[in-house]
Amino acid sequence: MNRDLTFLFSLIGIGFIIYIICLYVDFKNLDFNKLKMDFNTKEGMRSSNSDASGGNGFAGNAKQFASQIKAASVKLDDQLLISKYSTDYESAIMNMEGLINNLMLKTVLSVDPSNPQKTVQTLNALFKSQVALNAVMKYVDGK
């Protein structure tokens, strides 16, 4: 028994030494410069603690941000050509609305009495899709 304990402790000791060596190698290869974090800078933004009324910060960049959004919107308008294809878009929206109505009816007719909450959640998601389609239809009609 004494011999078994000695063997067990020697295995534990060897394992501990191997563990220490692995830790040493990991820490030696670790680049601490990459771990430094600047908590004042957000990705793609300037420092948030700069003067908001100046050229830096959120307020100073709002005009540039608004122009970037406008440019993206104009680009999408040019791609979609809503005024030219509005009848096609309206037809697609109406077909989608019909599909959602059928899915809503199917959902109502297939309610699980043991778990009606799942059916209600599905129905609610479909209803929100219907509201979104109405908003898209108003947008297309307005163009």
List the helices and strands and how they pair.
Layout: H1 2-29, H2 32-35, H3 57-80, H4 82-109, H5 116-142
Helix pairs in contact: 4-5
Gyration radius from CA atoms, angstroms: 31 Å
Name the beta content range: under 5%
Biggest pleated sheet: none
Specify the helix fraction band. over 70%
Termini gap: 90 Å
Quickly count the domains: 3
DSSP summary, beta strand count: 0
Overall shape: elongated
- Write down the oligomeric state: single chain
The helix/strand series, from N terminus to C terminus, equals: HHHHH
* Poorly predicted runs of 5 or more residues: 47-54
Determine the mean pLDDT. Answer: 79
How many separate helices?
5
Class by alpha and beta content: mainly alpha
Features:
elongated; 143 residues; 0% strand; 3 domains
Provide a compact summary of the structure.
With 143 residues, the protein is mainly alpha-helical.
What does this structure look like?
The chain contains 5 helices and no strands. Helix 4 (82-109) packs antiparallel against helix 5. The chain is mainly α. The protein folds into 3 domains: 1-35; 47-80, no CATH class; 81-143. The termini are far apart.
